[in-house]
Design goal:
Shape: globular
Strand order of the largest sheet: 1-3-2
Protein name: MarR family transcriptional regulator
Helix content: 55-70%
Oligomer: single chain
CATH topology: Arc Repressor Mutant, subunit A
Largest sheet: 3 strands, antiparallel
Number of helices: 7
Number of strands: 3
Strand content: 5-15%
Number of domains: 1
Order of helices and strands: HHEHHHEEHH
CATH architecture: Orthogonal Bundle
CATH superfamily: Winged helix-like DNA-binding domain superfamily/Winged helix DNA-binding domain
CATH class: Mainly Alpha
């Protein structure tokens, strides 16, 4: 088995997301995070921690023109903390992204039964768990 096949699959999925939704990987991760939290407002520091990136990296990503149009960013009243959540354009983009991810899943797994998909997911989870133990 060519272990780098995982990388090829990742690259193709990222390319599809970019072509169909005009989103890069950092924007995709940001939108999926807010989708998973029902678009709850969060501080930049907490979001950086949740995404496992530095605050400066997150700040750079958020301040990109293509990303900034997807979020509402405001400074807290009594501190320098910035909080953000998705605006309507961001919420619309999440819907588009979710639809595309469902399409991709159908393309990849259409021929498989539910048990096969569940088994595949379990195997991927085991691989990730093993890798997490090996890489700190």
């Amino acid at each position: 088995m060519d272990i780098l096949t995982f990388n090829l699959v990742e690259e193709k999925i990222k390319k599809l997301i970019y072509q169909k939704c005009s989103l890069n990987l950092s924007q995709t991760r940001l939108l999926l995070y807010f989708d998973s939290t029902q678009n709850k407002k969060i501080s930049m520091g907490s979001l950086a921690s949740a995404l496992n990136i530095s605050l400066s990296t997150l700040s750079r990503q958020i301040n990109q023109k293509q990303t900034l149009v997807l979020v509402d960013l405001e400074r807290a009243k009594y501190s320098s903390t910035k909080v953000l959540c998705l605006n309507q354009k961001g919420l619309d983009k999440v819907e588009q992204l979710r639809g595309l991810l469902n399409e991709i899943e159908l393309i990849l797994l259409d021929e498989w039964g539910k048990e096969e998909v569940l088994h595949f997911q379990n195997q991927l989870d085991k691989i990730l768990s093993t890798l997490n133990e090996q890489v700190s």
